Amino acid sequence: MLLKNMTLYIDSRDNKKILLELQQGKNIVVNYEKNLDGKKQGDVLLVSIDDFLKNQNIDWSQIKKIKVNNVGGSFTGLRLSVIVASSLAYAKKIKLEGVKDEKIEVEGIEILKPFYDREPDIGISKKNKIIK
Fold first, then answer.
1. Beta bridge partner(s), residue 105
2. Which of 55, 68, 114, 121 shows a CA-CA span of 20 to 30 A to 131?
3. Given CA atoms 58, 59, 61, 63 in this order, what sign does their dihedral have?
4. 92: which residues sit within 8 A by CB, 6+ positions away?
5. pLDDT at residue 131 greater than cutoff 60
6. Residue 45: beta bridge partners?
7. Cβ 18 vs Cβ 36: under 8 Å
């Protein structure tokens, strides 16, 4: 694929799938949906991005922006996509943008702010629960 000025869109807010797109302007050139089938997003997101770009013959030099959906969905998935997108943008020196484009700066590094659509529901892990 000989396209330039591409945007890599990342959405892992759904804890059952990962959505990746290559966009040029407002047009979606190609999209990819990875069903997780019980796998953890953290185990497959970076590999999925790498495989997706390789399968499309896209080099990082063709990516000029990383856009991430940073609003709502699974807490873990949302945090993961924000962290991965922010890290890749920093490492590759690529522009970073969010659906809700509010950034924070941490030690001179710009990262997107995640926007959760509900309060966390944190409890005792069922795996580690001690039965008396």
1. 110
2. 121
3. positive
4. 60, 63
5. no
6. none
7. yes
User: The pTM is what?
Assistant: 0.82
What's the burial of 81, exposed, middle or buried (CB within 10 Å: 0-12/13-18/19+)?
A: buried
Encoded tokens for 68: 């991430």
Task: Identify the sign of the CA torsion 24, 27, 31, 33.
Answer: positive
Cα–Cα distance, 39 to 89 (Å, whole number)? 25
Q: Which two tokens stand for residue 113?
A: 């702010």
Structural domains of the chain ordered from first start: 6-112 (3.30.420.40)
- C-alpha radius of gyration, the chain, whole number: 16
- Helices and strands per DSSP (H, E), number in the chain: 2, 7
Three-state secondary structure call for residue 98: strand
Query: What's the rounded Cα separation, in Å, for the pair 56 and 48?
Result: 12
Confidence of residue 24 (pLDDT cuts 50, 70, 90): very high
Give per-residue pLDDT as tens, 120-129: 666 666 666 5
Q: How many CB atoms lie within 10 A of CB 20?
A: 21
